[in-house]
Design a protein that fits this description.
Blueprint lengths: L1 H7 L7 E3 L11 E4 L5 E4 L19 H17 L27 H13 L2 E2 L11 E2 L6 H14 L5 E2 L2
Parallel strand pairs: 1-3, 2-6
Antiparallel strand pairs: 2-3, 4-5
Helix pairs in contact: 2-3
């Protein structure tokens, strides 16, 4: 299906993202590629509108909401060796307390969780432990994820799935 759509789009598709598909592909995050290298990243069900789906509280504080998203992202990361692209789809939390007027906005969640994740670092592979650490998480936008996804497929250190 994706390969057909990419052909019909005359090579203008940089990448695909898909919501969790428990019936056909499973509920967990996946990174796959079309035969031409086009990335197809599937969001983990826990990060697909986490508040709406009950993974994060609908009436928690801003701090609880930030911590919930952070812990879900870390849980997904723990299940996959890097490099791995973790998609996050979200929504505003109007009943969460401590937000910017009408609850906690998705922009607030994204900004705070990005800061928390960027503070986490790990040693650079192939360098001495005393070398400057590299961030374990890099927060990027959709267009960057598509371009980086192509590069990751070429440099991937383990077999990659390919979806037609």
């Amino acid at each position: 299906m994706y390969a057909r759509f990419a052909r019909l789009a005359n090579g203008t598709v940089a990448g695909f993202s898909q919501q969790p598909s428990p019936v056909t592909l499973g509920p967990r995050a996946r990174n796959d590629w079309l035969p031409d290298g086009t990335p197809l990243f599937m969001c983990d069900e826990r990060l697909w509108y986490s508040i709406d789906k009950g993974y994060c509280r609908t009436n928690g504080s801003a701090a609880e909401t930030f911590a919930c998203y952070e812990s879900l992202i870390r849980a997904v990361a723990a299940e996959h060796p890097p490099p791995f692209f973790i998609l996050v789809y979200g929504e505003n939390c109007p009943r969460c307390a401590g937000g910017t007027g009408s609850g906690v906005l998705l922009a607030d969640i994204a900004a705070e969780v990005a800061l928390r994740l960027q503070e986490d670092s790990a040693p650079v592979a192939g360098h001495a432990p005393s070398a400057v650490p590299s961030p374990r998480f890099r927060v990027v936008g959709t267009q960057d994820a598509a371009a980086l996804g192509r590069q990751a497929r070429l440099a991937h250190h383990r077999p990659c799935g390919v979806i037609n």
